[in-house]
Amino acid sequence: MLLVVVRAANRAVDALARVMGACAGWLIIACALFITFDVLARRFLGFSTQSSVELSGYMLGIGITWGLAAAMEARSHVRIDVLIMRFPPGVRRWLHWVALLALAIFAGFLVYGAFYTARESFEFRATDNSLLKTPLISPQGLWFVGLAVFGLMAALRTIEVTLLLRGGTIGEVERLTGPRSYVEEATETLDAIGVKAGALQQSLQPDGNGASARMARPRDRSAL
To answer: Of 4, 59, 100, 175, which shows the fewest CB atoms inside 10 Å?
Structure first.
């Protein structure tokens, strides 16, 4: 029963992380466009917004923190898996759990630091020492939200993997925390370019004449 509840909470956080990841991506694009406009305006129009450094810093910071949970949901964080995949499944699941627990503890420190910093800025009504005088609670609050979702996802995944250590399979554990296989990465690449993995595999299978089903047979040059 507890595993069902934790899984449902995990899937809800996963959905939220995907939305936040999309927002982070568009924010990075907006940041690039804003910097491009500021550079071109300074070069050809003779003026500058005088706030590109400040705003781009906020946007990059928010984009990074809001993308952490989405990267974890997609298992895109960098992991060195040269040795771990050589261990038997019984040992590997415990190593995945240790790695996930360490990540959850690290995320907890990040969340605590972000909350303390944002609270301090709110209490002192701190503003940035710049032309815009931006209240620091605004960017720091958004940073805290991104880190909080990341920390919550790490904690829920740690609990779910803990519950799977006895009754679950290594496949269930690695779908949550293990490195992505080359098959998963290849499938994602094919989906991104609009090619379905099943259709590609079917197209590469030879037909009765020994040629691929969707590849035209070469012309017989001897008949020319």
So the answer is: 4
Adjacent-strand bridge partners of 206:
212
Cα→Cα distances 101→89, 158, 160, Å: 18, 6, 11
Distance CA 9, CA 24 (A): 22
| Per-residue DSSP letter, 193 | T
Q: Which residues touch 139 (CB under 8 Å, ≥6 apart)?
A: 58, 61, 62
Q: Which of 81, 103, 86 is nearest to 161 (CA)?
A: 103
Give the relative orientation of helices 170-177 and 137-167 as an angle to the nearest 10 degrees.
Answer: 170
Residue 145, burial from CB neighbour count under 10 angstroms (0-12, 13-18, 19+): middle
pTM exceeding the 0.85 threshold for the entire prediction: no
Backbone angles phi, psi at 137, to 5 degrees: -65, -25
Pairwise CA distance, residues 168 & 176, whole Å:
12
